[in-house]
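Here is an idea for our session: we take a single protein and study its fold together. Which protein we use is up to you, so please pick one and set it down. Once you have written the record down, we can walk along the chain together:
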Amino acid sequence: MQTKHLYYTYSCGVLGDGVKWANTFYNRYVDKNYCCDEPKREFTEFLKSRYMEADGTVGFMTAVRLHRRVVLIWHKMRRSM
């Protein structure tokens, strides 16, 4: 998911861990047997292969199948009186 604005995040994701500004959030499915000595480097290469940048990205990996997922979209609603 990519947003128009940067968000100040606190994350323990494979990419973008710690406190940083980010506008892209990527939850990647990996096989339950996934094994890598350098997952941060491998995830960065994965993004590059899809023409995406690792900078400004918070990246997560999960072995849970993503066929059932929920995407929540939040936005400000302006009320006029």
About this structure: The chain has one domain: 2-62.
